[in-house]
Design a protein that fits this description.
This protein has 5 helices and 4 strands. The model has no long low-confidence stretch (mean pLDDT 85). InterPro entries: ParD-like. It comes from Mycobacterium florentinum.
C-alpha cells in the first residue's frame, strides 16, 4: 500500500478516549485505532449490498425494524448511535421545546434545578422555599 501523508484534524474527545482504551487492548495507538475504525466504517458505509440497502431503508423509515436481520440491526443501531453523537453538541433542545410550548428543567451553573417556561421566564426550584421567579432570559443563552 502506498504511504500517505497524514493531515491534521480534530476528533470528538469521547472518540479519542475510546480509541485510547480500545487501542491499548488491540496493541494500537489511539491514532492507529481511529484509523482502523475509519477504514472499517468506510468499508461498511460504501457497501451497496442488499443488506446495506435494507438498513438504509430502515433508517429512512421505509422498512420496519423487525424486518432486519440481527446483523442488519447491529449496523442500524450503530448508524443511529453515530448520528445522535454527531448532533448532540449542535442541538439546543431547550430552545426547540420552548418553541413547541414545552416547559423544561435543567441544572444551572450553581447546580440548582431551574424550570424554563416557553415564555422565556425561569424559576429556581428548591425543596425548602417558594420558587424564585427570574426575568425573561435570552433562550439561546441556555
Amino acid at each position: 500500500m502506498a504511504e500517505s501523508v497524514d493531515r491534521v484534524t480534530r476528533f470528538a474527545a469521547d472518540l479519542v478516549d475510546s480509541a485510547k482504551a480500545e487501542g491499548a487492548r488491540q496493541s494500537r495507538s489511539a491514532k492507529q485505532q481511529l484509523d482502523h475504525w475509519a477504514r472499517v466504517g468506510r468499508a461498511v458505509s460504501s457497501q451497496h449490498s442488499a443488506a446495506r440497502r435494507r438498513v438504509e431503508a430502515a433508517l429512512a423509515g421505509d422498512l420496519e425494524l423487525g424486518e432486519l436481520s440481527v446483523e442488519e440491526g447491529v449496523v442500524f443501531n450503530a448508524e443511529i448511535a453515530a448520528a445522535i453523537q454527531e448532533n448532540l453538541n449542535q442541538a439546543n433542545y431547550g430552545k426547540l421545546l420552548a418553541k413547541r410550548g414545552v416547559t423544561t428543567v435543567a441544572l444551572n451553573e450553581a447546580g440548582e434545578i431551574v424550570e424554563y417556561r416557553p415564555d422565556g421566564s425561569s424559576t429556581v426550584l428548591t425543596a425548602n422555599s417558594r420558587p424564585i421567579r427570574r426575568k425573561k432570559v435570552n433562550a439561546g443563552a441556555r
